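User: Could you check the structure of this?
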Amino acid sequence: MESEVTVVYADREPMPGVVLPGTHQLYRNPRLAIEKRTLNLLHSDDIRVQMCYAGICGTDLHIAEKNPETGYVRCSAPAHIPKEGRILGHEGIGKIIAKGADVLHVDIGDYVCFESIIVCHHCDRCRSGRFNQCRHARLLGLEKDGLFGTVVDVPGRVAHKVTTAIRHEDDVKALACVEPAGVAYVACQNAHVSAGDTVVVFGAGPIGLFCALLSLTVFGASRVSIVEPVPFRRQVAAKYSDHVYSLQEFFSSPPSDIDVVIEASGNLENVSSIFRNLNANGRVVLLARSGSQLMLNAIDHMITNQITIVGSRGHLGGAFNDILNLYRNGRIQLDAVITEVIHGNAELVSTLRENEKVLHDNCKVLVGF
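Assistant: Sure, the predicted structure tokens are below.
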């Protein structure tokens, strides 16, 4: 069987003088291609999926974009791009058309969505239930071939059956967004968002928007503000938060006594600028990757007020089940972030190459296969 896929190629050239370079210091000159690939014999623990929709994430945009000053990719998330290229994509939904003999929890014909972190289940982090920090994790679409294709093979253990949640086509599109919603859900857990909290979210991309929506509707925050520089995204965010600000509006008169800051934009200067406005026992969650440094000059404020700064990665540990149960019972709108649906690999590659269209004119873009 053949599949049409979207692949990224790059030159592996570690940046001189950098010890343990990140992805954004390792791969140069990214190039996108659409290819026909023959699928190999299906492994016993894999499933073969006819893709319905896949979501375009900021990570996909950044792995396909080079920094004009250095030539290196912008993505700082872990990635391995082999000589034969890497099939991108880690968010989506599809229908199983074949499965290996060892896959027992899903069947041919089932609709499934996917976790994007493939864990080992054997390291000390996995054994203690901290799957998001698995020592040997591989990221779908970055370290293992992903979902941007007409038919893809993925490990069966990352699949969640969602057939019973589908009543019409809109549900199929919405369920393509379970992965980013799960990431936002874990971020809210790590922030310990609770009843009465004042929450500020920087960035109204899909995950930032889900953080705001979940803070209000699930975790019980009393007031949620979103800070976003792009006018279109501010319009979308206004439906799912109490207040929406441009950067200039927010920092000209920032609120005091903020309980939680969720940084989902990648601009870490936001944290430095607002840090003294954090309430006692405030929490800061760093969610977006940019490869930049966090600089703080208010350490006394941090110590006196016992402010916590924590990184948040992943969606494992029950988030998928909770998100799916919330969706089935009408408690959250997973399609809230979807602003455009494109079709096929040709439109996908064009969109990845013209990422300003996603960043300035959209929130979540889905590609239908």
